[in-house]
Amino acid sequence: MEFLPINIDIKGQPCLIIGGGEIALRKGSLLIKAGAKVRFLATEFISQIISLGDEGKAEVTKQVYQSDCLMGQRLIVAATDDLQVNRKISQDANAMGLLVNVVDQKILCNFIMPSIVNRGSLSISISSSGAAPVLARMLREKLEWILPQNLAGLLERIELKRAEVTKLYPSIEARREFWETFFEKLLGWSVAENVQKGSDVNLDVDQVFNEIHSDKNETAGEICLIDLGNGRAESLTISTVKKLQKVDEIYLSTKLASEYENLIRRDAIHHDFELSKEEGDSFLNDRDLIDELIQHTLSGRKVCLLNLNNQFEDNITRIEQILAQRNDLKIQLNRAIRS
């Protein structure tokens, strides 16, 4: 075991993110979600980080890194594109006994941030110890789909039962047997049914790598419109979840963010997006938005617009008209809810 998996209570603790780009945003957002007091430090910032500062969710400091910037901090994340700066941050943090993570440079880290599946008080972390972070992400995506979205509420209700179970079953063994039986009945499967005899897997890693590498083409950008109707996350089709896990830019309303955020690729850039239900309304009537989407697709990025009440389906005629006039837009329309 190269790294010891631990859970740390970071609520209210000062954490410093050195960097102002997308990776810094992703790391900082995770710490904010965990309740940390986050400060971003860099000479330039993307708009989303500036917005976090404007909204009072983080402190944003425009400054060149100096060693004394680490004073009073609990945890450090170095997310700059300068190797020498990252190395200096690591050295300074270690000398001060601080937790430090340098993005994509495992040798400079004394802790790493795993892929996380979160359902309220249940957290599952997956790490390859830096050997294959994409594999860790893919395993997380698989678990996101397998685990019910309502586990958070379930755990809250179970927590209320713990004291009662402790009174009824004084011994640890009796309580363990109770909870195993409880969850088997609740979830509809037993522990034994999930233990399968494994077999050795013989994969030629070099061959697979070379095949994929030789066939690699430039990724074409695309726009994916996902109509959710009046459905909930639990009703999404598998194909829709796969699209959400591959998206680079996601446009969705803030009222949808909390329910769907665990299904969306963790490092996707989020944009607010609202489409009214007025007759004939369409996102394609918004020229500024169209230009923004085209720029994303021309750079090979996959863009997803997610909304409720079948706004996209209701405007399919308008969408088809626009597509007939433009050959630089690749648009997919998906009905995301299982019938």
What is the overall number of helices?
12
Number of strands: 12
Q: Can you write the helix and strand succession as a string? A: EHEHEEHEEEHHHHEHEHEHEHHE
Instruction: Report how far the terminal alpha carbons are from each other.
Output: 45 Å
Helix content: 25-40%
Mean pLDDT: 79
Radius of gyration: 23 Å
Question: How much β-strand is present in the residues?
Answer: 15-25%
CATH superfamily of the largest domain: Tetrapyrrole methylase, N-terminal domain
Largest sheet composition: 5 strands, parallel
Label the CATH architecture of the largest domain. 3-Layer(aba) Sandwich
How many domains would you count in the coordinates?
Answer: 4
- Tell the overall outline: globular
Report low-confidence residues grouped into runs of 5 or more: 191-203
Across the major sheet, the strand order is 3-2-1-4-5
